[in-house]
What we know:
Blueprint: E1 16-19, E2 22-25, H1 72-76, H2 80-91, H3 100-104, E3 114-118, H4 120-123, H5 125-128, E4 137-141, H6 147-152, H7 154-157, E5 165-168, H8 172-176, H9 184-200, E6 204-208, H10 225-242, E7 245-247, H11 249-253, H12 273-295
Parallel strand pairs: 3-4, 3-5, 5-6, 6-7
Antiparallel strand pairs: 1-2
Amino acid sequence: MSLAARAVNAGAVIARTVIAGAVVAGLPARAAGAPIATDAPLAFAAAPVPAATRVIGIVANPCQGVPLEPTLAHKAAADPYEAWMREWLALDWSQQCRYRRENAALAPPSAARVVMLGDSITEGWKPLDPAFFAGDVLDRGISGQTSQQMLARFRADVIDLHPAVVHIMAGTNDIAGNTGPTSLAQIEGNVMSMVELARAHGIVVVLAAVPPAARFWWHRALEPAGTIIELNCWLRGYAAREHLVYVDYHAALDDGHGGLAATYSDDGVHPNAAGYAVMSPLARAAIAESLAARARPRPPGPR
């Protein structure tokens, strides 16, 4: 999911496009959330990497050769973004290389470090509300990602950063089919696995509702509003059963019909600055509650 192009007219070409957190010169604007092919559910399937450049097996630096920014060859392709993403995902499907340098450069964690894990809704939060990320709050959203990709990079982008709290927001792109067909049971399983991994490492979880959306304009045939509500019902119930803090962005942003209110979004899927202004206080309160719960001594015996 791209972070730019939200305010760009359809079909426009701009000189600078923000994609997956990188400012890239000369790429055509691709709408936020759009997969690399409009008619294929397996839009992010790996394309073959030329044998001359392919690295196989165990290497010292698996990120060497992963195109974190588009190359001249990508820019010369008929669809530069598609060419870029196909090569990146062929080499690094879970995109663990996206934040590798930033992770390595981090100072030791504070006692209140928070990792915000998610997709473009999370990735787009920091540019539009940088104050929320003051201190030791880390944005680890990646555009277009599904819950299975987040699970695959959970160690690299959460566990190894030693946060006190992880805020997990996942499901939008699963429902959109960005990495192919799935089921609610699979999404739920991925979320449960992330929660269990966090707990095994002493990390408290804030579980976020999937924000509302009446349409995914990159897959217009889908009507996701009811499925989002169904997934959120499960998330709320699971959070209650597991004594997790649940933050309900859906209720806060809903237009009353299962869509994202126009006041809070420019495209019906991604919050704008006004949307994040609603979300940030809810997130702060949920994180504070989680930190307080973490500080309390646990009663003896099983949960």
